[in-house]
Amino acid sequence: MKIVLGAKNKLGFVNAKIEAPEEGSEGFERWKGCDYMVASWLWNSIAKDLVGGFLYATSLKELWDEISERFGGSNGPMIYQIKRRISLLMQDGLSITSYYTKLKELWYELENIRVILSCTCGSVKISTEVDNCDKLMQFLMGLNGAYDQDQKTKAVVAIGKEHEGLYILDKSSFLSSAIQFYHKVKHLLDSLALNSVNTSFSSVSINKENFQLFNFA
What domain of life does the UniProt record list for this protein's source (predicted)? Predict the structure, then answer.
């Protein structure tokens, strides 16, 4: 919310840096309209079951300070809720494209509230690769019967073994193969989602010579 207010040049309304003009002056009505608009943004950002706890705020700044005090210290609860939604998301009756799009929206939402590392060292690269593998597993685990359960389990187990350094594929790590696969699937599904094209799995294979999970029809 702070980013949104800053982008719209309205942050001064909640931190009291934009003071109210004298009532009856030329700019008062315009200021009051902006003040009401910012207030509506804040109220709409609060879950309905929590609104009651903020009703006694007597000013926009007081409301902002109360929200910041309660929720500004940590994104932990929000991260938990998003990760829970990811874990519960299943393909069910959705097309592959629709299922992937919903999952991608949750990933994007999660990335926007998590702390992002800014350095370019090897640790960050490894962390990114592990994150991509996690996304691959989340994608696989949410698929329904269109994708053979036994093959899906093998893929997840194999990725888990690679994290423990136990699985090697063609003199390169399974992790690298999984990452390559993830980006191929991501590129294809992004294209399909963009063009609103439906797709389905036609075959699945996992072997040591050729890491190939999906063929799309």
Answer: Eukaryota
Q: Which residue's entry shows tokens 């809720």? A: 81
* Residue 194 CA neighbour count, 13 Å, CB half: 6
**Which DSSP symbol is given to 169?**
E
pLDDT for position 88: 92
What percent of the chain is modeled with pLDDT above 90? 3
**Cβ of 160: how many Cβ atoms within 10 Å?**
14
Q: What are phi and psi of 206, to 5 degrees?
A: -135, 120
DSSP 106-133: HHHHHHTTSPPP---SHHHHHHHHHHHH
Q: Which residues pair with 206 in a beta bridge?
A: 211
- Model confidence over 60-81: pLDDT tens digits? 788 877 777 766 655 677 788 8
d(CA 35, CA 18): 10
Average pLDDT for 30-43: 83
What pTM does this model have?
0.44
Helix 76-88 vs helix 96-111: crossing angle, to nearest 10: 170
Distance, C-alpha 215 to centroid of its chain: 27
| Contact assessment for residue 101 and residue 196, using Cβ atoms and an 8 Å cutoff | no
* Rounded-to-integer distance, Cα 212 and Cα 100, Å: 19
Strand partners, 168: 173
Closest CA to 152 of 91, 86, 213, 215: 213
Max Cα–Cα distance, the chain, nearest Å: 79
